[in-house]
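To the team - magnesium ion complex, inputs and output below.
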Amino acid sequence: MGIAALGRPAIFLDRDGVLNEHVRHAATGAYEPPHAPAELRLFGWTIPALLRLRDAGYLLFIVSNQPDHAKRKTTLAALAAVHAALEARLAAAGIAIAETAYCYCHPDSDVAGYGAPCPCRKPSPWMVERLLRRHPVDRGRSWMVGDRGGDIDCGARAGLRTIQVRDPCSIPGDSVAAPSFRAETLADAVHRILAEDGLAADVPAARDRGVA
Ligand SMILES: [Mg+2]
Ligand SMILES: [Zn+2]
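Output:
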């Protein structure tokens, strides 16, 4: 088996709270994932951070629980529209997502086909394992980045290194596994990834964000 057969390093990205902001919904006062393209707001550092990963040679995947149709808060069509808007925004910036995996289920759902049992919902590693079967990825050189405990356990159970970022608008919940690292934002996570993998850029991550 040659080196090429081992595959490329990859970053498995949670979506809400990592790439884009949670949205405060007036009706409930709660912070929720975007339910329409107009509600999709990328963090200011998302595109520069993903460009750094792209340029360093990582395949990029999104792995996301999207239970709000199962919770009767939105529709599958609306979730698809948000996804299309996200892919378009990233593509316009030159960022290709190799594949996105969504779990649309929720264990408490009464929508037929979207409740338990569901193999895919994080913290299950099911979605990551499926992507690993479909793409030439070197698991041991890859990472999961998420804001919630379920993201960290998903990545840990898939044998990935993990980074937990802090989203002030989400409740992180607990993980069984400790994250390999913690970071304030995706920008800081990327700085850590490049440093750990011996690909450190010259510019500190904080300076990318205009932080003195
Ligand atoms: Mg999240
Ligand atoms: Zn599922």
